[in-house]
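fyi for ur records
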Amino acid sequence: MKNLYTFLIIVGFVSLGFSQQKYEWKSKKAAGYTYTYVTNDPTQTRFYQLKNGLRVILSPNDQQPRINCFIAVKAGANQDPKNHTGLAHYLEHLLFKGTDKFGTSNWQQEKPILDSITVLYEMYAQAESLSERKEIYKEIDKLSGRAAKYAISNEYDKAMATIGGKGTNAFTSYEQTVYVDNIPSNALPNYLTIQVERFRNPIFRMFHTELETVYEEKNRALDNDSRKLEETMLRDIFKNHNYGQQTVLGSVEHLKNPSLTAIQQFYDTYYVPNNMAIILVGDLNPDDAIRQIAEYFGSWKPKNVAPLSFPKEEILTDTLKDEVWGPTPESIRIAFRLPGLSDFRSTITATLADELMSNNTTGLIDLNLIKQQQILSGSSAVRKMKDYSVFVMNGTPKDGQSLDQVKDLLLGQISLLKEGKFSENDMIAVTNNFRRRSLESQKDNSSRSYNLLESFIISDGKNWNQTLSIPDEMRKLTKADIMKFINETYTYPLVVYKKKGKDNNIQKIEKPNITPLAIDRNKQSDFIKSFNRMALPEMQPQWIDYSKDLQIDFVNNSKMYYVPNKKNELFSVVYRLDYGKLHDKKLAIAIEYLKLLSTKKYTSEEISKGMYQMASNYNFYVENRSLMMEVDGLQENMAKSLDYFHELMFECVPNESILHSLKQRILKRREEAKLNKTNIMKALTSYATYGPQNPNNYLLSNQEIIDLKAEDLTDLIHRLLRMPKEIIYYGPTPLIKIKEKLKLHIPRQTIISTPPIAKFHKIHNETNKLYFVDYEMIQAEIQWIKNTTTFDSTLTPIISLYNNYMGGNMASVVFQTIREAKALAYTTYANYQRPETQNEPYTLTAYIGTQADKLPEAIVSMNEILTTLPESQQSFENSVKSLKNLLESDRVLPENIPFNYFQARDLGLSLDQRPNTYNSLANLNFDELKKFHNTITQGHFTYCLLASEKKVSLDDLKKYGEIIKVSKEEIFGY
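which gave:
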């Protein structure tokens, strides 16, 4: 998916002709507050500004009884002081630590200790000798331990979880820092209560453990080749702007010398109402919401914020080249600097040009390089920022191909744009697909929130009318406009070569000596006690009744599940087969091959263009046990879309030449998969869960791939729609009418049965084992695995509560202990995973990603939790409240009901299980939770460790079980 701000911009389309709608600013007064809005805005968004300058953006959407909440600050890496890069980011972390009223049990006792720590950090940054720095840090660590006696960890996260909040997080980029929550719609007063306190007087407590978490995040970034590629690109293409001269995470040197004084100055400068916005999208009444926001935030005092400016970037007069090294596969990135989002016309022109270049279907890269198998993979995107944007092309070479050859092929597609080797119909098709994507996303709170956020950052929301008018303006662009823009702007590129090998320039932030902080999970501040007593208006949960919410009929001789789409004119037809990768090793390859094939009637390119011009898609989802084939788009084009799809499925013609090229690409991808740590960890955990033969490596051998025949694959494809299948229709047409229409298009089932499925059984170890894969990186990743008992629906309530308490969010005991108290990881979690089918066992998993030198401590810490569940009655009660409020506001969207039903059916269930969980909560207690924990943790664990053998001592890990080194060939099966 492209990172575009086009998800909502064409919601106002009512036809594919030129829209005559006008998007004009108007103002109106309601409930005592004046707001502005844009005429014909389908999102009905209101823009307010309080007297203190705070922007409030409210956008109602009643799809679910929840509200997506952003509190945005116009301050990010761009605003970081030159001598304290990364500051905006670690301030973001500290805004979760509380104030003088919460996060502390005794502020008067805590304050003088924190003041002393602030002074010590200034001394630490100025100390010149290593010995002096060590002595100062010892004192910081000592005082931090004293201060922690008064600190209450994660009170903010616990409070948000208690009211049914989820997705609690924050992010920092170059131009913004944004605090994110998603709350039940009945909890808005509660949310505002804690937010106004949160930003009133934040206290930077537990700083040295949080800073160590930032170090972990930085070290993860240093291990991430994609991030290195991105930062190198920005550094080379922006010689003056902070986009290239500073990074969001900051330099290693600056992170080693933090200043609490500088953080406070940054906060005082930029966290002021006239530099911030509250953006709420969801089930809300704008009149009520603005009244409450003004009541809570109206007294906040504004300050002048000096505008930020940078010297203009010089025009490139030659091609720039750079390189990045790392263990992942080779690739190339080509970048052109463009005008930024502030230049509206350039932005829409660049967006349209990018879609012509790559849209996953009919772009020049898609048709000329991917479908023709000229390269292994390729794509384009516009990296959009306020002052400048960057057009980016990425490519990876196929076997025997050089990076320069990939570069030349990608630049060749730019030349085609410059020469006008595209049609007006291609441009119209892009716009049609904009319309379709907008219809899909107008109900999505998250997409709308990000669009409104971008509008605030660019123009305080004043460009929202332009955002809505983009489809109209895009339709006015001509082929000559595109060619002129490309020829004038896409001149000299930056080329960054990602090469495979050791990065000799990689840095690392060493682990400081930190004494774990004592955490009392039962402590509560008076503020949070009062917060927890705030009433939540009653909200009635809504459950699914499959007999009422899912209509079942037959089309020809296949069962059809029908759900009406009452929101828009989009349809989806899904064919679901109980036939997947474990039934036939050739299936996934056959599906990939199909996308490259022609029929006797149409070429592959004609099918892709025909579907794209109608704003229709076809997609395949190949799972272990099932295959789903989906055709979707505008209802008016359903018949023709299905005709195209069925033509491809039944009439595709075998082509040995295409298959030969595909085989080479698959074999190259297989080798590259063994260089990617995410893929390695996935393969390793499957190996540990099932044994040497497992679902992840149930694949054709390389030789079997080489021996494949084109006709074998097309014969398999031709049979698919004749196999036993279920049909799912979601769309605006009534059942009685759609049934008759589908009868004309849905092929009858003529094949009676499918091949048997390959069966794999989760293993139960008689001893502890540690599987190890050697991989060159700074970090270490370790996962615990334990298979337990077979699925039992009566356990669902206790499992749901256990996962919430144990590792479900930032208020969980795993997160608090390992990250907050001990600073041993950036990412850590634990959960009890439900199986996919009723005859499979549950799996208990836990995970830590940490610096290699912290691994011994991290393992001890997780094992302590797995051995003895940390006990906190307060945390338990919070988890019960959290789960109750989450369930009350949880809604299964109509389009997801059939798939929810299939999940239940696979588990042998015929009813929605949420009511049972909801009704059981009041009867559960901590003793039952503890008993459950002790039951599932008894026995032996399997450890999966991915790390560099140079950085971990395997001998020291033998105490945890038998060490078994496994090769990548063993776990991948090739």
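The chain has four domains: 61-191+205-274+507-533, 328-500, 546-743, 769-972. thats all i got for now
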